[in-house]
Specification:
The chain has about 170 residues and is an alpha+beta fold. It has a single domain (about 10-165), classed as Hotdog Thioesterase (Thiol Ester Dehydrase, Chain A), CATH 3.10.129.10. It is built from two helices and five strands. A five-stranded antiparallel β-sheet has the order 1-3-4-5-2. A hairpin with an 8-residue loop joins strand 4 (about 90-100) and strand 5 (about 110-120). The model has no long low-confidence stretch (mean pLDDT about 95).
């Protein structure tokens, strides 16, 4: 894998993306609200584009964590999926995603409906990890999100070690 120290750092704003989509009856679950899986699909898709923009090529989802569904989304709502890079390592990146919705039947500010953090890994043409540019936080918010992402990364790695050390006790 190439040395990441030779890559130029990029700010989160260089890959930030918001996608908006109107939800229709084809997106609903048995409760008549938008299926959580549809929201997860949007989250994963937008995070993938943001990671690809930051890394200049394809990236795959390694983990989705810290996902919270806060409010139901309804048919007719306009969903906004906002994603940004919060941390970058050698080949992996954390993408924070916030989902909000404009209620179609009320003139009220958008409501937050979901949040998630995803770990994306940049891959080459053979599916192997490849180097990504470092993240260069610019604002106080960028720096705060970077610190928080580092804490989540340490937590994920500690959890992974604990699970792997658990042996075959299943």
């Amino acid at each position: 894998m190439p040395d990441t120290s030779t890559l130029t750092g990029r700010p989160p704003s260089a890959s930030h993306l918001t996608l908006s989509q109107i939800m229709d009856q084809h997106h609903t679950n048995l409760m008549g609200t938008v299926h959580g899986g549809r929201i997860l699909n949007l989250i994963d898709s937008v995070a993938g584009v943001v990671a690809a923009r930051h890394s200049d090529g394809p990236a795959v989802t390694a983990a989705i964590d810290e996902t919270a569904f806060l409010r139901a989304v309804r048919v007719g709502d306009v969903v906004h999926v906002d994603a940004r890079i919060t941390w970058a390592g050698r080949s992996s990146m954390e993408v924070a995603v916030k989902v909000s919705a404009d209620r179609w039947d009320r003139a009220v500010p958008p409501v937050d409906v979901a949040t998630a953090h995803l770990v994306m890994v940049a891959v080459d043409d053979h599916g192997y990890p490849r180097a990504v540019p470092p993240l260069r936080p610019e604002t106080d918010g960028d720096r705060r999100r970077y610190r928080e992402a580092h804490i989540r990364r340490e937590h994920r790695l500690a959890l992974r070690r604990a699970l792997l050390d658990g042996g075959d006790e299943a």
